[in-house]
Amino acid sequence: MSEQHPTSPHRRPFMAGVTEPKLHHPAPGAPPPPLPGPENPVLELDQEECWDLLIGTMLGRLAVSVRDRPELYPVNFLAHDRRLLIRTAQGTKLAAATVNSSVALEADGRSLHSLWSVVVKGTARILQTQAELAAAEALPLHPWTATTKTTYVEIVPTGIRGRRIALAEGFRLER
Amino acid sequence: MNDLPRLPDAEHPVQVLTEAECRELLAGAQLGRLALSHRNEPDIFPVNFWTHGDTFLVHGPQDVRAAVGRSSQHVVLEGDGREAGTVWSVMAKGTIRELDRPEDLETVRQRRLRAWILAPDSAFLELSPAKITGRRIAVGPEERY
């Protein structure tokens, strides 16, 4: 690779020839990211924050369009190297993504006073070559369910959008 | 005889839920996700929703209104949760419209729906489901917590 960049075991590329994007690290002593509140209830997240949240999440929902109608499936995924990897069983989900490779994946979570949601739009493809499959097998992507899952689908993002939304009183969690 | 709910296990990891079970689970959920399609490309938004007779009232930030407006109006609403070594996921598939007529807004007012989002510019929508499906899935042991 031509560029100097920090690496960690979690960011090792799983495909040959993939270049990691430059990572952004906040300056030491920088203020923590702002939180949404009554005066600013919807906070757009930058790409780095979106990826941080995705890396810490394993359950998401995959949407595909079939004849301009959405289908939605719960999936377990791994955010890695600015891509998403999904492990799935052969079935309708795959069939739909093969017909129309434009997909969206959403993950979200809740904290005391806010909810975050990140949506990745991108192009899905099934990993085929032995090298790709071996590299994917080596990643810590465990099946979410007790069912056997053997097919890997990779999503290369074309866009990412994330936000934190303040929760109204009554929807906040108790400390 | 046995009133215990059927729960999936390692031998039968996926349990298909009846529509009644699906509706009951959705009635107890508050946060969900709305999937829609525009020019054959999908998008997903987190939303707040409530059961309303046979339909669902959906609430979300203003851009949900815009996205629904330009979508094919065919949507999927998903809710899910965790229970005792299992996760459930329910999908309500149907068509959606914005609640903007005075009588619609009166309905919303009478229900005293409390939206979870504080944004002043938000939208109420109504989803008429054509099909509701759901599954309960046993979670692999390494994922239990």
TrEMBL record, chain A:
It comes from Arthrobacter mangrovi. Gene3D superfamilies: Electron Transport, Fmn-binding Protein, Chain A. Coiled coil: none annotated. SUPFAM superfamilies: FMN-binding split barrel. Residues 1-38 are annotated as: Disordered. Signal peptide: none annotated. Residues 28-38 have a biased composition (Pro residues). InterPro entries: Pyridox_Oxase-rel, Split_barrel_FMN-bd. It comes from the Bacteria. This is Pyridoxamine 5'-phosphate oxidase.
From TrEMBL, chain B:
It holds the Pfam family Pyridox_ox_2. InterPro entries: Pyridox_Oxase-rel (IPR024747), Split_barrel_FMN-bd (IPR012349). This is Pyridoxamine 5'-phosphate oxidase. It comes from Arthrobacter mangrovi.
